[in-house]
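A quick aside before the break. I want you to see a complete sequence-to-structure record at least once, exactly as it would be stored in a machine-readable document. Don't worry about memorizing anything.
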Amino acid sequence: MPSIGLVVAGDALYNGVHQYFLEGGDGGLQEWLEAIDRVEELEPRAVIAGHKNKDLPDDPAILDQTRQYLRDVIRLLDEKPTAREFFDEMMELYPDRLNPGPVWYGAVGLLGE
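That is the input. The structure line, written in tokens, reads:
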């Protein structure tokens, strides 16, 4: 809703919740980053994430937060850790996010057991 500076982002942006990145292989994570850039170009004043901690505001800061999370996922995947090492590192980086299940599923799916 450009007239009021609102973006309802659906699955593109997350707010205080671990991201589901399992299907991001084969360039999908990079495409996700590009989608965030396109949303940012709209210069929203409020962004409603499809997956969010209800106690957090709908602040455009989630653009950078989602972007950084994905960059950390990409960096860690490139290091080829075990699934457990990946999971532990993401939990250390993002201890306050809700729903860690997708981190484990993503780690096992993209790195193997």
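Two observations worth writing down. Helices lie at 28-41, 61-78, 83-93, 101-111. The first helix runs from residue 28 to 41. We'll return to this after the break.
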